[in-house]
Write a structure and sequence with these properties.
- The chain is of the alpha+beta class and 168 residues long.
- It contains four helices and nine strands, in the order ββαββββαβββαα.
- A hairpin with a 5-residue loop joins strand 1 and strand 2.
- The radius of gyration is 15 Å and the shape is globular.
């Protein structure tokens, strides 16, 4: 785990920093981002989180999600992290931001994030980082929406929230 997160208020104004695990244990609101990637067939790239992740391991989610580091510009962080997690970079456009909070009983932590959501298009090779993802797949939106309804337990909380907010 990276050592520190950027703590923010409900307007995304920086109010401090905290060690990553401590912020999650105490439920402190912190800055995060989520990246959705589509190909030219309008399929969305999903990753199945590595089983060893500190929460939500083995669940399907968006292509990339992380936290910008202290003194790191958000727009630098999204490109850097996409390259680190999926082995590629592409143009990204900010779509919206939202706050969510959830308690993970099994892991005894909160996710309380001010999440900036970005979308990009990409058709090349994907080389997932095995520390982050156990598997990837491209899926048509229709099939994703159907599976989300039938098997919501297979997806991360924040990904379901993002999809609900997009209106697809």
């Amino acid at each position: 785990m990276q050592s520190n997160l950027i703590l923010v208020d409900e307007n995304d104004k920086i109010i401090g920093t905290a060690e990553k695990l401590d912020a999650h244990k105490k439920g402190l609101l912190h800055r995060a981002f989520s990246i959705l990637i589509f190909n030219s067939k309008n399929e969305i790239l999903l990753q199945r989180r590595a089983l060893h992740k500190y929460h939500s391991g083995g669940l399907w989610t968006n292509a990339c999600c992380s936290h910008p580091r202290i003194n790191e510009d958000l727009y630098v962080a999204i490109h850097k992290r996409l390259l680190e997690e999926m082995g590629f970079d592409c143009a990204l456009e900010k779509k919206f931001e939202f706050i969510y909070k959830i308690w993970f009983e099994k892991d005894q932590i909160f996710e309380y994030e001010y999440d900036h959501v970005f979308v990009g298009k990409y058709d090349g090779f994907v080389i997932p980082n095995s520390e982050e993802a156990d598997e990837i797949k491209w899926i048509a939106l229709y099939d994703l929406m159907s599976d989300l309804k039938e098997n919501p337990e297979n997806y991360t909380f924040w990904f379901k929230e993002i999809i609900a907010k997009t209106g697809w």
